[in-house]
Amino acid sequence: MTSNLSPIDKAKFVAAKRAVDYVEDGMKVGLGTGSTAAWMVKCLGEMVRDEGLKITGVATSSRTADLAAQVGVPTVTLDQAKWLDLTIDGADEYDANLNLIKGGGGALLMEKIVATASDQMIVVADLSKQVDTLGAFPLPIELIPFGWQTTKALIEETLVNLDVLGRSSGLRMNNDTPFITDEGNYILDLHLRRIGNARQLSLVLNQIPGVVENGLFIDICDVVVIGNGDGSVEVRDINNGTVEHEQIDVVETDNLFVDIAD
After folding, report:
1. Can you tell me the mean pLDDT for 69-75?
2. What backbone phi and psi angles, to 5 degrees, belong to 173?
3. Taking a C-beta distance cutoff of 8 angstroms, is the pair 160, 192 a contact?
């Protein structure tokens, strides 16, 4: 029942519900990964089921692909879709310029590829993800497993000359073994605390051998939809320079909105 949602889950739900208003019949849509994006996929599933919405999704992870299949959203590969009308995804942090840190769910590589292959990227989030300066959330870096400790050392050495407050890093684990991405890579989480120049950091990190991609999304996001626990949303459009406030009706329902896990 949506009426029984916690305030944080209600915030995620109303952000997702508002974001799917951007989706139109016949669109090709990138489907993000994470707990807030999961609400979005389920909202789309309801629209497909109850309203006859016809869309084609491209999933950014195996988890999202499985969820899309479960709720009836048809998906294809990005190679089959070629280009997307929009992508809707979550974020671990966003700043006033809608620059993001993503990758907390370990899907940053596919998420960035899909987002940059879209005419528009819409982020769904809550106010806890808003920051003045990126960096409080650990920055994920996707590495190839071969020589990862050497790559880690090179990254930490490079950080000495960059505008960050911290330089420690840790390999993301899944119990006693390294976390493995859908592409078979490792994730290194950088504990930077504050990133003074995100654009420079992103460019420098991607020049280090062994680094596949980093979780900084610079100049990719167009709109952020911020949900609140009272059912209100704020829609910030960086291109139009607009900020809108709306109230989303949340009604008790026995539909798709159950068992959303982080």
Report:
1. 98
2. -115, 155
3. no
Q: Are 16 and 39 in contact (CB under 8 A)?
A: yes
Sign of CA dihedral 69, 2, 232, 226: negative
pLDDT tens per residue, range 111-132: 999 999 999 999 999 999 999 9
What is the signed CA dihedral for 76, 19, 66, 213, rounded to 10 degrees? 70
* Three-state DSSP class for residue 135: coil
pLDDT at position 210 is 98
Looking at residue 129, the DSSP 8-state letter turns out to be G
In a 13 Å sphere around the CA of 45, the CA atoms on its Cβ side amount to 22
pTM beyond 0.85: the answer is yes
CA 32 from chain center: how many Å?
Answer: 6
Report the first-to-last Cα separation within the chain, whole angstroms. Answer: 17
Q: What angle do CA 84, 245, 40 make, to 5 degrees?
A: 35
Q: Annotated catalytic residue: which of 46, 93, 111, 142? A: 111
Cα separation, 36 vs 173, whole angstroms: 23
> What does residue 49 show for φ and ψ, rounded to 5 degrees?
-70, -45
93 among known catalytic residues: no
Largest CA distance in the chain: 55
